[in-house]
């Protein structure tokens, strides 16, 4: 048995050298994976869907997170509710993973029947003294921010979700994201650890060489750069980049769009997030190959097309909102070496496919990017499990957020006594 295999989860992360990657055992061990699920997906706020997943009363979406399962449902009063997917009789699953439409939630085992507000409506053969009022479905702590459905399975969820809500509510407001529909959705399974999926998402060091579709809409300086190696031409380009960013941000702010960066990524944050409004290159409108809008029916009541990319990171999701559409992705770990990535492309609820947009223009950038990232995560996971792997040094110019994620990960484990 190797020295690292003898170390506990906490000892492994504390052994990480500052500015370097994590030990390979943190990506491959089953006990580490199970602790990650318990801490980062059962005790923290996570993104599990969007309101357009359940557009009408009776619509249901079921999501599994480790051994836990939740039901997302829109009730008869148009409220989005979430419950544990556990019958209050003998624990049977009420619904399978996926989407459906119901009048009530009926347990397939003994037909205990629940209203959409979670109350137990019918339970046969239980006698006259049976009190149904205390046997409704178990609710899940839920926050809806914009269209994003965040849940926390802990009894006492982290209170700093309020900071995310306070920050993102005015940023999402002009886009009216609850008045959207899902134009396309994709599920892929990446054969890599969830932390590698997030690390890959936290840097664009790799973007210029691997994401030709995505980089069509990014300014080159947004990938990161090493100031020590810039020549005079590159320095002039950097000044132009800064001037363009400042001009766009001033224009957005003048029109009421909140765009300055906000970061809560350090060790003292429980609910980790970052947001910023990025300038889009080329025609400046949207993340498409043409950099023009993919949908001529803009979100909300927007008139401007050139609103850049308003993005949001959390520890299990990433969001890109443009004037015409939004792309929202979130992850669910399945095994030490398997991670489910769900992506949803949202357009205005009244947008008509084939008239206002076509799906290929809308999705081609991020479908290509997701496919490329899948490969990158998989070859990295394989490499971290090789006996020859030694954690390498992060770039201090382009991978600072990866190092920051590693520090936050360690801090959260420590906070839970690990």
What does the model show?
With 418 residues, the protein is α+β, with helices and mostly antiparallel strands. The protein has two domains: 52-145, Rieske [2Fe-2S] iron-sulphur domain (Rieske Iron-sulfur Protein), CATH 2.102.10; 178-415, Naphthalene 1,2-dioxygenase Alpha Subunit, Chain A, domain 1, CATH 3.90.380. Helices cover 28% and strands 23% of the residues. It contains ten helices and 17 strands. The chain has helices at residues 9-14, 25-28, 30-41, 161-172, 194-201, 207-210, 212-215, 232-254, 359-384, 400-415, and strands at residues 46-50, 59-65, 68-74, 80-84, 98-101, 105-106, 113-114, 120-122, 141-145, 148-152, 180-190, 262-264, 273-278, 309-314, 317-321, 326-335, 338-348. The chain has a seven-stranded antiparallel beta sheet, sandwiched between helices. The chain has a four-stranded antiparallel beta sheet with strand order 4-3-2-5, with no helix packed on it. A three-stranded antiparallel beta sheet has the order 1-10-9, covered by helices on one side. A hairpin with a 2-residue loop joins strand 9 and strand 10 (148-152). It is globular and about 85 Å long. It starts with 8 loop residues before the first helix and ends with a helix. The model has no long low-confidence stretch (mean pLDDT 95).
């Amino acid at each position: 048995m190797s020295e690292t295999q003898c170390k506990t989860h906490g000892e492994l992360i504390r052994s990480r050298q500052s500015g370097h990657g994590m030990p390979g055992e943190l990506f491959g061990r089953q006990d580490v994976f199970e602790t990650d699920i318990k801490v980062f997906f059962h005790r923290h706020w996570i993104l599990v869907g969007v309101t357009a997943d359940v557009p009408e009363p009776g619509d249901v979406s079921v999501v599994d997170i480790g051994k836990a399962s939740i039901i997302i449902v829109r009730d008869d009063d148009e409220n989005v509710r979430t419950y544990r997917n556990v019958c209050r009789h003998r624990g049977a699953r009420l619904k399978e993973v996926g989407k459906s439409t119901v009048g009530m939630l009926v347990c397939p085992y003994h037909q205990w029947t629940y209203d959409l507000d979670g109350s137990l409506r019918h339970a046969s053969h239980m006698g006259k003294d049976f009190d149904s009022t205390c046997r409704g479905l178990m609710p899940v702590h839920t926050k809806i921010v914009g269209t994003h459905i965040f849940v926390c399975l802990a009894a006492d969820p982290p209170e700093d979700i309020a900071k995310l809500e306070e920050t993102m509510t005015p940023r999402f407001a002009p886009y009216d994201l609850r008045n959207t529909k899902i134009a396309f959705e994709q599920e892929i399974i990446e054969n890599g650890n969830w932390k590698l999926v997030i690390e890959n998402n936290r840097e664009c060091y790799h973007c210029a060489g691997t994401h030709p579709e995505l980089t069509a809409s990014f300014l080159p300086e947004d990938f990161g750069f090493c100031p020590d190696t810039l020549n005079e031409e590159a320095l002039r380009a950097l000044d132009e980049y800064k001037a363009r960013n400042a001009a766009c941000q001033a224009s957005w702010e003048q029109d009421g769009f909140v765009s300055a960066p906000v970061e809560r990524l350090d060790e003292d944050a429980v609910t980790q997030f970052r947001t910023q409004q990025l300038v889009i290159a080329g025609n400046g409108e949207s993340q498409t190959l043409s950099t023009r809008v993919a949908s001529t029916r803009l979100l909300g009541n927007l008139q401007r097309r050139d609103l850049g990319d308003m993005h949001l990171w959390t520890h299990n999701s990433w969001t890109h909102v443009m004037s015409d559409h939004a792309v929202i992705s979130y992850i669910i770990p399945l095994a030490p070496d398997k991670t489910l990535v769900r992506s949803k492309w949202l357009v205005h609820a009244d947008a008509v496919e084939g008239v206002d947009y076509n799906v290929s223009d809308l999705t081609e950038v991020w479908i290509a990017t997701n496919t490329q990232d899948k490969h990158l995560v998989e070859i990295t996971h394989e490499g971290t499990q090789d006996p020859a792997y030694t954690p390498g040094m992060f770039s201090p110019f382009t991978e600072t957020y990866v190092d920051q994620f590693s520090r936050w990960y360690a801090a959260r484990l420590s906070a839970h006594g690990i």
